[in-house]
Write a sequence for this structure.
């Protein structure tokens, strides 16, 4: 997204404008007011006496609120305006905007103020794919408001615009004739309210309250969220800033799906992914467990409720499978996309069990673990009953929806992300290596829950036998002897897809790697081929498809690195984990504390700063969670029974770091980091 754009958001409702506060969207860009995967406002342009305004500055007040300072154009290079304009906007049930015009002159002024307003009601998928609309639009002026609507059969979306000051409304916006005395001001409150109805729902007119009424509880809720999180103490001020930014962005990305009863889980990222994603919500909840365990509880509940119960090839649903993505827009409603929900991923089902176990280890919440025992058992059954598509004991994927389903159903889901060393693409089904690690971890963790919480030792024994067998076979079948690393995938005929990738770090996190093979993997992860100095690349330099600005073929993903660091800690490589943490946290400073989805995999010596990937989401949930998980790895936080253990390994340039009031089954705990490791 452009640096000149201003974004405010709350859950899956967000506004993207230019630095004047104006919205003038084209069919293919992501400016506008969005909610539930629909653009409710594509035009919102302010003019004074027929002229657009010039920006002076933008004040980001909160993640949900911004203030724009503007002046009329003067026709010269000098700004010597006698008028100034302030727009203060807060997102809520749509958005609320306070428009204020100040007359600095010693003469009165008469002004013609105009806001052009419209909506194309574009579905996010229509914007991504440049697809046109199939329904009809309508505009209705009713005294003190303008209603803009769109309907297609029973699917309806509406935007209502109102003003506190008297205005003249027409189908294209609203106008004001304003007289301002010398050194006086004029203002109005503008409300843009969205309304949603769909197939089978009774349509109701929106209530025309102030979206701005939500600002105080939102501000109070944010402060409560920050106060509940552990307190970070460190001698590195930028780390404090990054930590606070991560907590605030995570608060901004909280999304309450209708089935969650008002509780929140992490939406995946702005602008394309402001909804529930199985994999993203699970991994972000894992990152945030020591800081905001309630996110994990909601994620487990929502994903468990939507767990697959039948075979549906269009949605790629199968009994026990955890969803990939849930959408609420027009293309999903009319089954032009399968996202109601869509289940096309091969990893979220195993990761669900991993999160359930990790949640219990931190919180001791046996009641929740018992509540979702049927979900976890069904997920574990799915791994063997449906996930083993080749009948060889390995978790693999091949889409059943050939038209609109995802081809790659691992986290590296772009078309060219899985390849041989020479760049060739393998066929399907594909059994990527990290999937086997997730399956192994799910079985080990499921066995622990079965033994300690569900009181089913026979089931625990069976899962442990399955895990041991998988680990033994995996370390033989996936190992590339010449390269001393694990293949990124296996073909259906057993051929090793022999590219060197960051996936090997996820294997260490899962625990599937034999101890004897760990050292060679670490050498690769920290080698110049994979480690750029800022972080571990998704694909090693020297591989056939390597591209430092390729999405999954050379870029550095912060979230990827946080789990790699966790894996290094698991196998005892504390110094290497600290080195990765140092590189990623250094990069965060150049992004003002907000790590993007990905950044370029150029060697650190080439640039003074990390180069942002051109279309990266920001904020993005698992990038927001990355500093949190890195703090956990640096402090060596591990729950053991009723206690939280620490084993710090802190980068040298951080020196001192302490995390106070860490919540868990132990109550609140303080962790101090004093160990130092050189980069």
């Amino acid at each position: 997204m452009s640096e000149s754009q201003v974004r405010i958001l709350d859950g899956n409702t967000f506004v993207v404008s230019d630095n004047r506060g104006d919205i003038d969207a084209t069919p293919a860009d992501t400016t506008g007011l969005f909610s539930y995967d629909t653009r409710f406002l594509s035009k919102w342009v302010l003019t004074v006496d027929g002229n657009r305004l010039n920006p002076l500055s933008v004040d980001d007040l909160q993640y949900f609120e911004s203030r724009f300072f503007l002046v009329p154009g003067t026709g010269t290079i000098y700004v010597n305006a006698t008028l100034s304009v302030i727009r203060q906007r807060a997102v809520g049930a749509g958005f609320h905007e306070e428009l204020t015009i100040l007359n600095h002159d010693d003469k009165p002024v008469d002004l013609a103020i105009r806001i052009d307003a419209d909506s194309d009601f574009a579905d996010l998928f229509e914007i991504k794919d440049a697809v046109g609309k199939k329904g009809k639009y309508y505009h209705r002026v009713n005294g003190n408001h303008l209603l803009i609507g769109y309907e297609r059969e029973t699917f309806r979306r509406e935007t209502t615009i109102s003003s506190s000051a008297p205005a003249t409304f027409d189908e294209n916006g609203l106008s004001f004739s304003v007289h301002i005395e010398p050194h006086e001001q004029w203002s109005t409150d503008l409300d843009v309210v969205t309304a949603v109805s769909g197939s089978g729902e009774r349509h109701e007119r929106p209530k025309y309250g102030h979206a701005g009424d939500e600002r105080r509880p939102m501000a109070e809720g944010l402060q409560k969220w920050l106060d509940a999180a552990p307190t970070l103490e460190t001698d590195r001020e930028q780390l404090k800033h990054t930590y606070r930014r991560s907590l605030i962005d995570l608060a901004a990305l909280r999304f309450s799906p209708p089935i969650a009863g008002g509780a929140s889980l992490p939406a995946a990222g702005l602008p394309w992914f402001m909804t529930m994603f199985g994999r993203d919500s699970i991994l972000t909840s894992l990152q945030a467990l020591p800081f905001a365990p309630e996110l994990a509880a909601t994620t487990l509940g929502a994903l468990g409720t939507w767990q697959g119960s039948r075979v549906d090839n269009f949605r790629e649903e199968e009994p026990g499978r955890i969803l990939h993505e849930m959408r609420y827009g027009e293309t999903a409603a009319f089954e032009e996309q399968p996202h109601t929900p869509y289940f096309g991923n091969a990893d979220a089902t195993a990761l669900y069990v991993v999160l359930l176990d990790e949640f219990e280890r931190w919180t001791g919440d046996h009641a929740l673990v018992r509540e979702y025992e049927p979900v976890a058992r069904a997920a574990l059954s799915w791994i063997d009953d449906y996930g083993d598509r080749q009948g060889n004991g390995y978790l693999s994927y091949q889409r059943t929806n050939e038209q609109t389903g995802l081809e790659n159903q691992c986290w590296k889901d772009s078309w060219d992300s899985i390849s041989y060393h020479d760049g060739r693409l393998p066929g399907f089904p594909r059994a990527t290596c990290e999937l086997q690690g997730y399956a192994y971890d799910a079985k080990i963790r499921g066995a622990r829950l079965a033994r300690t919480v569900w009181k089913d030792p026979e089931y625990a024994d069976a899962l442990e036998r399955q895990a041991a067998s998988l680990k033994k076979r995996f370390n033989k079948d996936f190992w590339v002897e010449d390269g001393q690393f694990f293949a990124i995938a296996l073909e259906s005929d057993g051929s090793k897809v022999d590219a060197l990738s960051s996936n090997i770090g996820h294997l260490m996190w899962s625990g599937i790697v034999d101890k004897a093979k760990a050292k060679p993997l670490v050498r690769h992860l920290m080698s110049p081929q994979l480690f750029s100095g800022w972080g571990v690349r998704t694909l090693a330099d020297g591989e056939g498809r390597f591209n430092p600005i390729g999405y999954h073929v050379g870029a550095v993903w912060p979230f990827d690195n946080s789990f790699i660091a966790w894996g290094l800690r698991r196998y005892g490589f504390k110094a290497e984990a600290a080195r990765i943490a140092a590189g990623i946290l250094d990069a965060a400073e150049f992004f003002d504390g907000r790590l993007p989805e990905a950044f370029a995999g150029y060697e650190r010596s080439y640039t003074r700063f990390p180069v942002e990937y051109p279309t990266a989401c920001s904020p993005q949930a698992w990038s927001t969670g990355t500093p949190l998980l890195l703090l956990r790895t640096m402090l060596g936080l591990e729950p053991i029974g009723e206690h939280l253990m620490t084993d710090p390994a802190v980068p040298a340039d951080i020196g001192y770091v302490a995390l106070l009031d860490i919540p868990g089954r132990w109550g609140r705990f303080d962790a101090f980091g004093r160990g130092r490791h050189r980069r």
The first helix runs from residue 124 to 129. The chain has 17 helices and 31 strands.
